[in-house]
Amino acid sequence: TERNLQAPLPTIWSIITDYDHFVDNITGITDVIILERPPLSSDGTESPSLLGLKWTEVRIMFGTEAKETMWVTECVPHKYYCTKAESNGAVYLSKMYVEDEEGVNYVGMEFEGEPLTMCGKFMMWAVGWMFVRQMEEVVRGDLE
Fold first, then answer.
1. Quick one: pLDDT at residue 58?
2. I need a surface site. Which of 15, 111, 128, 143 has the fewest CB within 10 A?
């Protein structure tokens, strides 16, 4: 899912990577607890990479509070970062990215979930369609 934004790419990137203000900048998040911060650069300043960032995110999903712990698995500053979460017998992967297509700036998000356990596979089979719809709404809301 992508969204066209009337802002420079550096501004968009700074908003989607401002983990201290996720609650203010991403509509669906109600609370964030930073568990690990990225290491500082060699000069002691904040690193442009998000590698090492780990947090617990709180959202309302299906009418109830949901907490997920996520961490950044890959980051190309000013291009994209990827996160991973493991919960309820599944692995969840997401990618947030910014791009410029012929002078138009976009922010986008990709999301996928993979059940690992028999219970997780059964749940995906039984109610996966509801989960997919809910996640599509979450992604669209996050990009608002």
1. 92
2. 128
Report pLDDT digits (tens) over 23-81.
Answer: 888 777 899 999 999 888 888 877 778 999 999 999 877 778 889 999 999 999 999 99
Half-sphere exposure of 143 (CA within 13 A, CB side): 20
Task: Give the residue among 34, 82, 31, 88 at the shortest CA–CA distance from 59.
Answer: 31
Amino acid at 104: V
**Closest to 47 measured CA to CA, from 94, 81, 24, 70:** 81
| Secondary structure string (H, E, C) spanning 56-109 | EEEEEECCEEEEEEEEEEEEECCCEEEEEEEECCEEEEEEEEEEEECCEEEEEE
**Residues 74-107: pLDDT tens digits?**
999 999 999 999 987 788 899 989 998 888 888 8
User: Looking at the whole model, is its pTM more than 0.90?
Assistant: no
Rounded distance between C-alpha atoms, residue 20 and residue 5, angstroms: 22
Q: What is the distance between the alpha carbons of residues 115 and 122, in angstroms, rounded to a whole number? A: 9
Please report, as a single letter, which amino acid is at residue 86: E
